[in-house]
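Note to self: keep these together.
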Amino acid sequence: MSQDHRTVIAIRNLRKTFESAEGEEQVVLDDVTFDVFHGETVVIMGGSGCGKSTLLNCLIGEYPVSCGHILYHTKEMPEPQDIVAMDEVAFNEIRKRFGILFQSGALFNSLSLAENIALPLREHSYVDPSIIDIVVTLKLQQVHMLPHRDKMPSMLSGGQKKRAGLARATVLDPEILFYDEPSAGLDPVTSAAIDVLIKDLSKKLQVTSVVVTHEMDSAFRIADRMVMLDQGRVLKIGPRSEFEALRDTPIDDLKSRDEQLMNQFLNGLTVGPLTDADGLSEFEKLLVPAEESTH
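Structure:
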């Protein structure tokens, strides 16, 4: 992790609610507060329905927040800017300073791999076409995909699509990279290779990375610091070493419910605060039909 402790993203008292089909307010994020420092990799984790994907969508401006603040402070900003109070035109300028690796890779099927990578440069820069081709070549080399530059997305494996998505996410040389479940749908070997690539790019490009995942092997490989969410609230923020210690402590030696809950999640245990006597998680219990839950 970079020694520069400049805050790049400051999240303060963030709250996000949705309206249910019955017209009731449902709280998805509740008073979320933490900082992301320059050059570090922060992993946001938690079980299904904990709010981590909603948090990511708030950070990239896909969801409006109900209350609270999200402040960005990139290199060209003289002071932090709050995107919550910002209009779309101003926020689009900030968006140019970050890249996003979506869960599926989100490549355009009608474009070749090289054309996919070049698209952000053609849309958001005034770079000469000859320079665009050089940049695309460099970005594909960084993710070990240059031999596939002329292939269509349908010809790529899941891991190759993730690599291609990462090349496109970095083509504008962003300061911040957001990752949405980068290991989802990958076998363990490919997942580990993507993690190595994430760490390598973070070091070479000196970018700040925010990763949303529920894959614990991946999380512990790439994280500098970790944020654990449960039911929309932050249970713990700390360096990876603190979470490793919590994971390795016998659950019966932990006195607080929150610590036991985190230990259960980190170890993938079927018994603990996250599950009931039948081994159902809090999220799964919401999916059980009413008549079934009474038997």
